[in-house]
Write a structure and sequence with these properties.
Shape: elongated
Order of helices and strands: HHHHH
Strand content: under 5%
Helix content: 40-55%
Radius of gyration: 22 Å
Structural class: mainly alpha
Largest sheet: none
Length: about 110
């Protein structure tokens, strides 16, 4: 009986140590990566489950923002699908930050 308790405690400690090591290495790679920087700005800490909205259209839009794949002019310009990165408001580059925080008034958004 004592051996069984010792074995369970020892095993859980080992699993916990391995998990901590894996998460620490994952975080280090995420901190020092040269890709995924837009997502990194929004989610800098690894290991947390992302919660998506229940509305599918909103959830898809949220996921596209996280992977920097939007229909905003900044992204479309980089793909060669737009002639300019400038927003129609004339106040800056149409990227996610500009769309959510800089543009005044109401805008119509086309959801794929």
């Amino acid at each position: 009986m004592i051996f069984l308790i010792y074995s369970i405690v020892y095993q859980s400690k080992t699993v916990s140590d391995i998990s901590d090591t894996v998460v620490a290495r994952w975080q280090d790679r995420w901190d020092n990566s040269t890709t995924g920087r837009v997502t990194y700005e929004m989610i800098a800490v690894v290991g947390y489950k992302t919660t998506y909205p229940r509305n599918r259209c909103i959830a898809v839009s949220y996921a596209r923002l996280l992977v920097h794949d939007t229909s905003l002019k900044d992204h479309q310009y980089r793909l060669g699908l737009e002639d300019t990165r400038l927003c129609e408001c004339g106040q800056g580059i149409e990227d996610d930050y500009h769309f959510f925080f800089d543009v005044q008034g109401t805008r119509t958004v086309e959801i794929d």
